Amino acid sequence: MSVDPPDTPPELSRPGRAAVLAWRTLGIVCVGLATAGVFLPLLPTTIFLIAAVWAFAKGSPEWAEKVRAHPRLGPYIRDWEARRAIPRRAKVLAVGMMAASWMLLLFATHSLLLAGGVGALLIAVASYVVTRPSA
């Protein structure tokens, strides 16, 4: 049963086959990157899973539910969707890695403008992360 308004043309009521395939492909790529992030310390995991659920919700709601129901990773996704909450440990790791990355950049470059710009961006991102509720 369709819940589209009566004046919605049928071709706009549901995503086409190509769109569904594109959303699923994006979701699979994000899951792949998240999986790599489990093993590679500098690659984030959770943000790619959040992106995967977002893409799957558009192309395959059943697949989105599978990610949400995952016994180990699902709680992080559900906390984010329900309360925009980030685990305290993840906050500490994220801010610590940003600080370490900035220090490395500071020693590796001679451009104070570049170091200052990147530092300002990292401070903005760290502020966002720290001000989210803790899971």
Report on this structure.
The chain has 7 helices and no strands. The chain is an all-alpha fold and 135 residues long. The longest helix has 23 residues, at 17-39. The chain starts with 9 loop residues before the first helix and ends with a helix. 11% of the residues are buried. The model has no long low-confidence stretch (mean pLDDT 88).
Write the layout of secondary structure elements.
Elements (H helix, E strand, L loop, with lengths): L9 H4 L3 H23 L6 H14 L1 H8 L5 H10 L4 H21 L3 H20 L4
Helix pairs in contact: 2-3, 3-4, 3-5, 6-7
In short:
This protein has helices at 10-13, 17-39, 46-59, 61-68, 74-83, 88-108, 112-131. The chain is an all-alpha fold and 135 residues long.
